[in-house]
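A favour, since you know our C-alpha cells better than I do. Just paste the record in under my message, thanks.
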Amino acid sequence: MTWTRWIGFSLLLALLEGCVQTKRVSLREGPREYVSYDYDQILQRWTRSGSVVALAEFDDLLTVSATFQSWDFRWAYTIRYAEDYRLTVEQRQALLDETLAETREEHRFYVALYGPNRRWNDLSRKDSAWVVRLIDDKGNETPARQIKPIPRPGAVERTYFPYSNVWRQSFYIIFPTRREDGTPTIAHDARWFGLRFAGAQGHSDLIWELEPG
C-alpha cells in the first residue's frame, strides 16, 4: 500500500469512527429487556476509540479503546455472562444487583491501549506518559480514583472486550461518581462526558454524547 493510499485509508477510518462515536447514550437507570445476543450491539454503543498521532513522522503514539460500564452496559453484560456460564436465575439476579449497585459509587471504564513504548503506556505507573481524567462539557475534570492493570487479559476480557489483544495493555479505570463536596463528577445537565488522555506528546478525548434529559 502506497503512502497516499495509506493516508486516505486512515482518514476514512477516522471519519467512520467519528460517525459511530456521535451516537448518543443515556445514563438513565431502570429495567432492560436484553437477551444474550444483544451484548455486541450494547458493547459498540458504549465503546469509543481514539489516537494520538505525530503527523510529522506518521507515528502512532497512542491508540486506545474504552468501554464505559454504565447501568445499561452492565445489564447487557450480566445477561450475556449468565447465559455463557449457565448461571441459575438466583445467581444471575445476585450478580445483577451487585453490579448495578456499583454504578452509584463509581464510574468504571475498561481500557485497552497500545503505543511504541510499553513502559510509558502503563497508566498505573507514576511515570506514565499519560494522565487520564474524566471530563464533561461543564468543565468538570476528575482524576482517577484507581487504575487497576490487567497483566494478562484472559478468556473473559478477550471475549467480552474483543479489542483486547496481546499488543494492547488493559486496565480498569475507576472514578468516583461524586467529589468530596458532594457534587457529581458528571453533571446532571451535561451534554457529553468523556475520557481525556493527555501528556507531553499530545492528547486524545474519547467522548460519549448524552441524550437530552
User: Anything to note?
Assistant: The chain has one domain: 24-209. The CA atoms of residues 53 and 59 lie 6 Å apart. The helical segments are 3-21, 39-45, 71-84, 89-102, 155-160. The mean pLDDT is 89.
